[in-house]
Amino acid sequence: MKDTAIIKEARDAGRSALDEENGKKLLSEYGISVPKSTVVSDVETITDALKGFKFPLVVKVVSRDILHKSDAGGVAVGLQDTEEVKTAIIEMAQRPAIAQANVEGYLVEEMAPTGQEVVVGGVRDPQFGPMIMVGLGGIFVEVLSDVTFRVCPINRSDATEMLNELKGKALLDGARGRLPVDRDAIIDVMMKMGGDSGLLVELADDVDEADINPLIVSDNGAVAVDARFILADTPAATPSQEPLSDESVRKKFEPLFKPNTIAVIGASASGHTIANTFIRRVTEFGYTGSIYPIHPKASEVDGLKAYPSLGETPDPVDYAYIAISSSAVPPLIEAANGRVSYAQVISSGFGEVEEGIALQTELVESARSGGCRVIGPNCLGTYSPRGGLTFPENAPRALGNVGVISQSGGLGTDIVKRGQMRGIAYSGLVTVGNCADINPNDILEFYLADDQTRVIGLYLEGVQDGRRFFELLNRAKGQKPIVVLKGGRTAEGRKAAASHTGSLAGNEQVWEALERQTGCVLAETLDDFLDCLMAFQVLAPRSERPTNRIAMFGNGGGTSVLATDYFARHGLSVEPFEADTIQALEDLQMPPGTSIANPVDAPVGTLQQENGLIAEKVLDAVYTHFKPDAVAMHLNLAAFVGRGPIDPLENLIGAALRIQKKYPGQAHFLLALRSDGNPDVEASKKKYTEMALGVGIPVFAELSNIAIALEALKHVEQFQVTHIARVQMAKQS
Ligand code: ADP
Ligand code: MG
Known about the structure:
Blueprint: H1 5-12, E1 17-18, H2 20-29, E2 37-40, H3 46-49, E3 57-63, E4 75-79, H4 82-94, H5 96-99, E5 103-110, E6 116-125, E7 129-136, H6 139-142, E8 147-151, H7 156-165, H8 183-194, H9 199-202, E9 207-217, E10 222-224, E11 227-231, H10 246-257, E12 261-265, H11 274-285, E13 290-294, E14 300-301, E15 304-305, E16 317-322, H12 329-334, E17 340-345, H13 357-370, E18 373-375, E19 382-383, E20 402-406, H14 409-422, E21 426-431, H15 440-449, E22 455-460, H16 466-476, E23 482-486, H17 500-504, H18 507-518, E24 521-523, H19 526-538, E25 550-554, H20 557-569, H21 579-586, E26 600-601, H22 604-607, H23 614-626, E27 630-636, H24 649-662, E28 668-674, H25 679-694, E29 699-700, H26 703-732
Parallel strand pairs: 12-13, 12-16, 16-17, 17-18, 20-21, 20-22, 22-23, 23-24, 25-26, 25-27, 27-28, 28-29
Antiparallel strand pairs: 1-11, 2-5, 3-4, 3-5, 6-7, 6-9, 7-8, 9-10, 9-11, 14-15, 19-21
Helix pairs in contact: 7-8, 10-15, 15-16, 19-26, 20-26, 21-23, 23-24
Magnesium ion binds at residues 213, 226.
């Protein structure tokens, strides 16, 4: 940790920001070059003050009242001798904005060598802690907002990727006849700011916003010629807890995902409440453990023996489902006396409303003193096929590998039910509501440790403890894909930012940084979210060859033309086949009307050939010659209706399967079964979806859904590539 005397002095002097001179001192303590400078207050002594300085020089006004010195006429560059420096100061002092300000002096400094202006900034996110930004200077940052962010700490490969993300990056490579700039020098500065022992990390409790605007980067080195620091008045976010071992996390959550005993609070002995519904659903779902209804008076509820309190059940309770009026919950939980592991509180009327905030605190305190963990309140329940636990009606019993956490109960139900219709099978889904105690990070930690879970989906509204979330995402390292559906992403960032960096740092930037930095996938809609989960539940990311080259095959020319454009917009290439592929397809002598470029457009008549087995030959030719990274096959089911006795669909799917077996690991295979919504067509879609999923082919509604899924797959694959490179880089250094 560096000496922070500069910050302490500023604070003692009642300042909430560092002036340029002190800002630069701080930078140079962290090894960042700044121009040689001095502050003068009077022109008479200037000759002495400038001894040892190399001309040309720059003069800048020093005043707390002036944020942007050039706007006020307070910067003069290229001064060739002492006389010019004097004149510049005298003229500057007369400018209206400066004459009115409380001027503390004039900073005189050496000119930096000519180069490209770059901005390096820092800002503290209330959830995620220090973040670093880089962009190109001038209009690029001010008008075009061409900047990119990361959560700190970053490493050199993060810094390299950040520079590569800038739209104006050509300027760094020496566009317009200039010399390429010293990228390593920029990266060094970024590391000194945002690396493990960088300024933003070490001084996270003190620095709220930082701007090096500009850093002038020549072909050899970089100099910070302007510096601005806004001091923080609260400590930075830190992770709330140490990571647990996989084994202990699995053990910790066993009672939730596989409860041996369930207590139900709120079921009526005479009427019918949501808790009665819960009993019925869990029973129908096939739950085999004990269910204890808790009822103050009744001795029986829904045919089950009831108990007066949580403290009086025959065995301790793994999972309690609580749906009673909010004020009755805390005393109820307290009475559990260490005999309940998880209490899921369905009731609302807690922290989500002003009047319930105190009650929510009381709820957590009662749970702590009663030795149990609370999920919710204000949620709908937990769905865990391995434990026979459900909250949606007729939920699928099949145990899958998709683990979900939802901050919304209703959306949680949608995810289970819509996922079911598409063929997504879950390893669990927990609705966490207000997250008074257990929060999404806790469940995320479980899914990361859970062998049953291969892909994780999160619906989040707010993030508590962003620092821990960041660490968990990092722990996943793209090995278990994580898909995030985030509500409230576009909400404006800092309203009262005092730096450029601050004003550019919104919620959206934070999430984009997380996506790039941790390899998680951000989904924009519920549909996209489910499409991504569908892809990852079946397809394993292939890090040795990230997906890019796509072959498209199916019936519907217009559909595939539209899709080709859509794929391109999502960074996926459906490029025309080369001559050898075309030749191989021509040799198949398919009927006229069949287009054999990429996309391959085969009308129903063609697909009916050889009872659908023609598809195997087409795919074989494409796999042998074109060697795609992925194949998007699309079948317009309505077009097969009324087209004679031959229903080739089974054979088409079989062909896909055989080709996948013949060329293992060659291409991801994704199928769009397109329906016009007609009940007959829907029925056939359902049948063939099951068939395809049964043989490991993920099924989507349209080619555009496939594009979203492939884009996500590619993102994770590319992340894995850079992650592997990073690990190697770290080993070498
Ligand atoms: P402000 O951002 O408050 O207007 P700066 O200190 O950034 O003031 O100066 C404005 C511009 O002047 C810089 O963007 C840069 O182009 C130029 N400049 C300032 N100091 C130097 C320096 N030491 N060497 C070269 N150019 C400089
Ligand atoms: Mg500036």
